[in-house]
Design a protein that fits this description.
Layout (H helix, E strand, L loop, with lengths): L1 H9 L2 H66 L2 H8 L5 H21 L3 E8 L10 E3 H4 L14 E4 L3 E7 L12 E7 H8 L7 E7 L3 E5 L6 H7 L7 E2 L4 E7 L6 E7 H7 L1 H29 L1 H14 L14 H41 L2 H17 L3 H18 L5 E3 H18 L4 E7 L7 E3 L4 H12 L6 E10 L2 E8 L6 H4 L13 H12 L4 E7 L3 E9 L4 H6 L1
Parallel strand pairs: 1-2, 12-14
Antiparallel strand pairs: 1-5, 3-4, 4-5, 6-7, 6-10, 8-9, 9-10, 11-13, 14-15, 15-17, 16-17
């Protein structure tokens, strides 16, 4: 408790106000959110259960109506007096058979066309009427069906063989013993029943017609473990709820031994409530956000002057020379602001005096440096040397003077610290040509430069120290001819400039620290590496690989920056 009290006391006054507002709003919003969530969830679950019950009742009614239609049709055929008469007749001529078969065929075909879903209607007769396609068959054939043993001799039987649904009814023929009487069989497409079940198109609702003998007769495409569902539902036509798995209801189909079972995944019903729950949560969070914003506005309004004073202090701390701090209020905060304002005025006077003195000193130093290196004087002198060399027919001296002039012109770069790759390459070309003349062409140079990077920015005098190191520390200490290869190419958004020599190499102990410390031998690579990182960032710079007596490879990595930045540098 002491830690909490100390923490609260150490908080800023503004945070204390914010905390108070937030807690005051958080408690009722949380209570309201929990109440709304539980209420809405309960309402949605009840709604889903009511929908399941009404859907079951509607589907059951439509299914009973369709079953009754088939039942009435087959009964009307079995009790058709003319059909009964023709079935009881003993035929002695083919003509009588022909007339009877034509009548029966027309009767069955007409009935089939009027009743949807009927595949065909067959009379299995015990008379000597004969055989006529699927319309009239001998009684012995029906006894070969597996479902024949389940056929009733007095009522309509509904049977299923795994592919078709059969509606079977005995003919009215009291003169014949029960198991030898004639039967009318109506073969019905399973699709005729499925279209009723598929009208329940909810993805989370499963509807099946279940037969104790054959299992699933028909379904709406969302089957589940029907055995488990039927066994657990305790009573007919009452909603059964299993909180862990499903909500189910079942009932017998009138006129059959089948049962219709409808069930829905309880988990999916719960999932359907999440959208509304998320909506409630979003509304609560929105209210909390509004309270939070209003709290911030009140706290700022109450502490605006202290906040302004704190901001002015931060500006002064960051080095701002001019800060306007004013207050007309007569309270303690107003006195504090006016005292701070007077202090800032005095500090500004001291800073301005010190700053001007520093700027003037730097300006003098820069002018002194420019006076030491007078570019025009240097260029004119070199031009004069070049002209005099040409007059006395000394082309080597003339070429050397020209190269030296080009080298210093690109080196000075009009005082800019950044140049472009094209000019930097021109600088080292002039430098290397001078070095080749001085070393009697004891080494060769090969350039592999991509034109696309010519206008990319590069720090001035980046490459000259690198090639100088290759000559001084790589070639001068070996006897074989030296070779220097300079490659510059673009790699995605970067530029890689590689300076490779076949010199004596750098010892391993020096290679590990060459970019971190100043070398006593004058490598000067640390300065180049730091300049690159200072201008372009820490991800850029130099890397060095070297093998003693084989050579050294120095890679310079810089970003590919074009045009505008260089124009600004110019």
């Amino acid at each position: 408790m002491d830690k909490i009290s100390r923490f609260f006391n150490d908080m800023s006054f503004r945070n204390k106000i914010l905390t108070a507002f937030i807690f005051i709003a958080l408690i009722p919003l949380s209570v309201l959110g929990v109440f709304s969530y539980k209420t809405i969830r309960s309402m949605l679950i009840n709604k889903e259960m009511m929908y399941l019950e009404s859907t079951f009742a509607q589907t059951s009614q439509v299914l009973h109506s369709r079953i009754s239609t088939y039942d009435n049709v087959i009964r009307s055929l079995c009790f058709n007096r003319q059909l009964i008469s023709l079935n009881q007749m003993i035929y002695e001529s083919d003509y009588d058979r022909y007339e009877s078969l034509n009548f029966i065929d027309d009767l069955f075909v007409t009935t089939k066309n009027l009743v949807p879903g009927v595949e065909y209607i067959t009379l299995f007769t015990n008379s000597n009427m004969g055989i006529h396609g699927n319309t009239v068959r001998p009684i012995d054939e029906i006894k070969s069906f597996e479902w024949y043993t389940a056929v009733s001799d007095t009522a309509t039987s509904w049977l299923y063989d795994g592919s078709y649904i059969f509606c079977v009814h005995p003919m009215l023929d009291s003169a014949i013993s029960d198991r030898n009487r004639s039967y009318i069989v109506m073969q019905i497409k399973v699709e005729a029943i499925e279209e009723i079940l598929r009208s329940v198109d909810a993805q989370n609702i499963s509807v099946v017609i279940w037969s104790e003998e054959n299992g699933i007769v028909s379904n709406n495409g969302n089957t589940q473990n029907v055995h488990e569902v039927i066994d657990q539902i305790p009573s007919l036509n009452e909603l059964y709820i299993d909180n862990n798995k499903f909500i189910s209801i079942k009932d017998h189909i009138k006129g059959t031994s089948w049962m219709m079972v409808m069930s829905a995944s309880y988990k999916e019903i719960i999932m359907s409530t999440y959208l509304f729950s998320v909506t409630v949560i979003i509304i609560i969070l929105s209210c909390f956000l509004v309270v939070f914003v209003v709290s911030i506005w009140f706290s700022r309004k109450m502490l605006v002057r202290i906040y302004q004073l704190k901001r002015n202090m931060a500006e002064v701390e960051e080095g701002a020379f001019v800060v306007n701090v004013e207050s007309s209020s007569k309270d303690e905060i107003g006195e504090l602001i006016r005292g701070f304002s007077a202090m800032i005025v005095k500090i500004n006077d001291l800073i301005e005096k010190n700053y001007k003195a520093t700027v003037e000193k730097k300006d003098y130093e820069l002018k002194a440096l420019q006076a030491q290196i007078n570019p025009h004087f240097l260029y004119n002198s070199l031009s004069l040397i070049n002209w005099r060399a040409l007059r006395i027919d000394a082309p080597e001296i003339s070429e050397l003077a020209r190269l030296l002039s080009d080298f210093y012109r690109t080196t000075l770069n009009k005082g800019n610290s950044v140049t472009i790759v094209m000019k930097e390459i021109l600088n080292i070309k002039s430098y290397l040509q001078i070095q080749q003349i001085m070393h009697n062409d004891s080494f060769s140079v090969e350039y592999q430069i991509e034109d696309i990077i010519g206008n990319c920015l590069i720090p001035n005098l980046t490459l000259q120290p690198l090639v100088e190191n290759a000559i001084v520390h790589g070639f001068e200490k070996m006897e074989r001819p030296g070779k220097l290869t300079i490659t510059a190419m673009r790699n995605n958004d970067d530029i890689h400039i590689v300076i490779k020599d076949n010199g004596v190499g750098i010892p391993a102990e020096s290679l590990n620290t060459i970019l971190q410390t100043e070398s006593q031998e004058g490598y000067g690579l640390k300065n180049v590496n730091q300049r690159i990182k200072l201008i372009f960032g820490e991800e850029y710079g130099m890397s060095i690989e070297s093998v003693v007596d084989e050579g050294t490879v120095v890679t310079v990595k810089i970003p590919a920056q074009y045009g505008k930045n260089y124009n600004e540098a110019e």
